[in-house]
Design goal:
It is a single chain. The protein is an alpha/beta fold. It folds into 2 domains: 2-166 and 332-364, Alpha-Beta Complex (Quinone Oxidoreductase, Chain A, domain 1), CATH 3.90.180.10; 172-309, 3-Layer(aba) Sandwich (Rossmann fold). It is built from 12 helices and 20 strands. It has helices spanning 39-46, 94-97, 108-113, 159-162, 168-179, 195-206, 219-228, 240-247, 263-271, 296-300, 315-327, 346-354; strands spanning 2-6, 14-17, 19-20, 27-36, 56-57, 61-69, 81-84, 123-125, 128-129, 131-132, 142-146, 150-153, 187-191, 211-216, 232-235, 255-258, 279-282, 304-307, 337-341, 360-364. Strands 4, 6, 7, 11, 12, 19 and 20 form a 7-stranded mixed sheet that branches. α5 runs parallel beside α6 (195-206). The longest helix is centred in the C-terminal third of the chain and has 13 residues, at 315-327. The protein is globular. Bound molecules: copper (II) ion and zinc ion. The site of zinc ion (ZN) has 8 residues, from α2.
Length: 365
């Protein structure tokens, strides 16, 4: 099959023919139909990611069709439409059993090493194993993944839109709906209007927030935020916290969301949360070794800070439900698909992302 291989950090991906072995026990062969290009792919490709490895096949925002199943597979069947999950849900581990976290423990170590759960790879080239990225490797015509990492979705859902639920969009929606559990009638501020921030704006709207302020540097992105339900927009930078306090009677917002990964913005998100009960949810990923500065008085006076990975969503349960809400017309996905490209144009997709041109480039296979 054809796949985009990260040969060397800091170099463009190389699209080439590689081999993919049959799915083993508990594994599933998926034919990819669409795949978004996300910052995490670029982060690893750049070499900055300390846990990154090369060569490997990147990509984690995939949607496709189950082509074949291995032995003992019960969760999906041939022909099912699926969204790939870098954050799996085994349903059995102590974290899956808890309603308080989505960080499934079942395959973490092997996944972090670029292996499938049995410690080997299905990807290879001239007999040499190639590693899987995030357990997904969706910059390829096909992938083999564990069944616990596939969300079975409505087969009517267009897969070019569904793929965005594999990462960024679900992360933002879940941060509002699942992690923060935004209440109807509340005030929310979302810092950052990329895929995650726009998802958080949409999540706040679905939760019935009365006022949703979105903060970003780009007027185009703030316009998109309005389309997702932001009632107010604001240009980021110095003085944002003061402006938010002014807008909220001097108190701050019931909920704030950080979706930029910038630790200075994270601090603003903490300080813009309301005294007494304001909840700041961190969804952005900070650079290696960076720390978040918080004056403890903000916490003593009732603000809380929490983090959200993949929106706190349990993927196999929650992603299909979000796709259903999209199909019911509650989530407007079309404005997020800025560019449609082929697998051969994958490096163009990275360039567009670096230039902040649009929200998502989607590879169509
Ligand atoms: Cu991602
Ligand atoms: Zn689990």
């Amino acid at each position: 099959m054809r796949a985009a291989v990260l040969e060397q950090f800091g170099r463009p991906l190389v699209v080439q023919e590689i081999e993919l072995a049959d799915p083993g026990p508990g594994e599933v062969l998926v034919r990819l139909v669409a795949c978004g290009i996300c910052h995490t792919d670029a982060y690893t490709a750049s070499g900055v990611d300390p846990s990154g490895y090369a060569p490997c096949v990147l990509g984690h925002e995939g949607a496709g069709v189950v082509e074949r199943i291995g032995a003992d597979v019960t969760m999906v069947a041939e022909g099912d439409h699926v969204v790939t999950l870098f954050s799996p849900q085994c349903g059995e581990c102590v974290h899956c059993a808890s309603p308080d976290t989505n960080l499934c423990l079942a395959i973490r170590e092997q996944q972090n090493l670029g292996h499938l759960p049995d410690g080997t790879t299905r990807l290879s080239r001239q007999g040499e194993p190639l590693r899987h990225f995030m357990g997904t490797s969706t910059f390829a015509e096909y992938t083999v993944m564990p069944q616990i990492a596939l969300a079975k979705i409505d087969p009517q859902a267009p897969l070019d839109a569904a793929c965005l639920f594999a990462c960024g969009l679900s992360t933002g929606l879940g941060a509002a709906l699942r992690t923060a559990k935004v209440r109807a009638g509340s005030t929310a501020v979302v810092f950052g209007a990329g895929m995650v921030g726009l998802g958080a704006v949409a999540g706040c709207r679905l939760a019935g927030a009365e006022r949703i302020v979105c903060v970003d540097l780009s007027p185009q992105r703030l316009e998109l935020a309005r389309g997702q339900g932001a009632t107010d927009t604001m240009t980021g930078g110095e003085g944002v916290v003061e402006k938010i306090l002014e807008m909220t009677g001097g108190f701050g917002a019931d909920y704030t969301f950080e979706a930029t990964g910038n630790v200075k913005v994270m601090r603003q998100a903490v300080e813009a949360a309301r005294m007494g009960w304001g909840l700041c949810t961190i969804a952005g990923v900070a650079g290696r070794g960076e720390t978040l500065e918080v004056v403890p008085r903000y916490l003593i006076t009732g603000r809380r800070v929490c983090g959200s990975s993949f929106g706190g969503l349990k993927g196999r349960d929650d992603v299909p439900a979000l796709v259903d809400r999209f199909m019911a017309g509650e989530i407007d996905v079309a404005p997020f698909i800025s560019h449609r490209i082929t697998l051969d144009q994958v490096n163009r997709g990275f360039e567009l992302m670096e230039a902040h041109d649009g929200i998502r480039s989607v590879i169509e296979f």
